[in-house]
Write a structure and sequence with these properties.
It contains 2 helices and 6 strands, in the order H-E-H-E-E-E-E-E. It is an alpha+beta fold. The protein has one domain (20-113). Strands 1, 2, 3, 4, 5 and 6 form a 6-stranded antiparallel beta sheet that branches. A hairpin with a 4-residue loop joins strand 2 (47-56) and strand 3 (61-69). The radius of gyration is 16 Å and the shape is globular. The termini are far apart.
């Protein structure tokens, strides 16, 4: 029984552990993910400067990293006068759309300092 539980736990932990692939600007889930995050903060007119967005083969798991810009293309500061980097892992819940499950968000003094958790030196 102990070994069965160990195997079951290993399978469950690796359920979503598949290769991630970058989403192109015109791919459908990209817009839905960005819209979900804009709705979360109540800034529907803003747009994202997406540093990295990837999805797994089954299209159930996504990684998103980006900063918000206003309609003039200027980065938006938060109430602490810092730039807020959305750095998230999301799951597609089906009926409810994309749901943030892991928050790796950070604040930075300048947009150039913002680094994605899983992106290394990508900009």
């Amino acid at each position: 029984m102990r070994y069965f539980l160990l195997v079951l736990m290993m399978i469950c932990c690796n359920l979503y552990a598949s290769d991630m692939f970058p989403l192109k600007p015109d791919e459908n889930p990209r817009g839905a993910i960005a819209l979900t995050l804009r709705e979360e903060v109540g800034l529907l007119n803003a747009r994202f400067d997406i540093k990295r967005i990837e999805i797994n083969e089954t299209r159930e798991l996504a990684y998103f990293c980006g900063l918000l810009k206003d309609t003039d293309g200027q980065y938006i500061k938060d109430e602490d006068d810092k730039y807020y980097l959305f750095d998230r892992i999301l799951l597609d819940s089906g009926t409810e759309g994309w749901v943030s499950t892991v928050y790796l968000d950070e604040e930075f003094s300048a947009p150039e300092q913002a680094k994605c958790h899983f992106a290394g030196m990508l900009t």
